[in-house]
Amino acid sequence: MLALERRNLILEKLQEEKRVVVSELSQLYGVSEETIRRDLDKLDKDGLAINENTSIDMPFNVRKKKNVAGKQKIAELIAEMIQDGDHIAIDASTTSVFIAKAIRQKERITLVTNSIEIIIELADVSDWDIISSGGRLKEGYLALVGAKAIEALDSYNVEIAIVSGKGFDLERGLTDSNEEFAQPKRIMMKSAKHRIVAVDKTKFGKIAFSQIAGLSEMDIVVTDEKPGDEWLERFKQMGVQCYYPGR
């Protein structure tokens, strides 16, 4: 097992259990306790050991296992909004992977994305036109970023853009952990007739480093639980439709 893979597995346990025992990890992964201590030290120095900071991104394989049930609910709701023949743009978030799985049965979809994971997920769908943004692969993530990705995304016009983020705040809107991730999402929203924001309950009330869009720049918010009255009232004021299970 590679050191990076082992550290990601340790990080998953930390996120789920909030604590780990060195001797148990040593036996579990077949390495010395000193190796485990170095792994934990590396995670701590990277600011990842136990971190709720929305400006620091967890590895993709860790994030996609968080609130799976909520992301599946969001994906099911969004799948009902996608029609055969639509042109759509989807970002490189973990929520978007669940959305891609939920819309596999749609026909004649044209999909633009900067997500390697989504491209792999939909590689065997026969009647879709799947367009990669190209660009630079972000180390440790399955996202294509940079000037080339932005240039490509900016050249397409779609009916629907679906984006997510690390934070969702009444005043600051949708935000992400850094500019490299936020910029492709802004471009997708700018080029779409209908802009869907997919955020689970854990994102509400949080603010990450880089702004993607204010409430006035989105048309629909899809989430996994009914938001509080303050949120629903603000959505109404801004003309934003909000969908959640049971609505």
Structure notes:
The chain has 247 residues and is an alpha/beta fold. It has ten helices and twelve strands. The chain has helices at 3-17, 22-29, 33-45, 60-63, 68-79, 94-102, 116-121, 147-153, 179-190, 229-238, and strands at residues 87-90, 110-113, 129-132, 136-137, 144-145, 158-163, 167-169, 173-176, 192-198, 210-213, 220-222, 241-243. The strands form three sheets. The protein has a seven-stranded parallel β-sheet, with helices on both faces. Strands 7-8-10 form a three-stranded antiparallel β-sheet. α2 crosses α3 and α5 crosses α6.
Question: What are the key terms here?
Answer:
247 residues; alpha/beta; seven-stranded parallel sheet; 12 strands; 39% helix
Describe the SSE topology.
Layout: H1 3-17, H2 22-29, H3 33-45, H4 60-63, H5 68-79, E1 87-90, H6 94-102, E2 110-113, H7 116-121, E3 129-132, E4 136-137, E5 144-145, H8 147-153, E6 158-163, E7 167-169, E8 173-176, H9 179-190, E9 192-198, E10 210-213, E11 220-222, H10 229-238, E12 241-243
Parallel strand pairs: 1-2, 1-6, 2-3, 6-9, 9-11, 11-12
Antiparallel strand pairs: 4-5, 7-8, 8-10
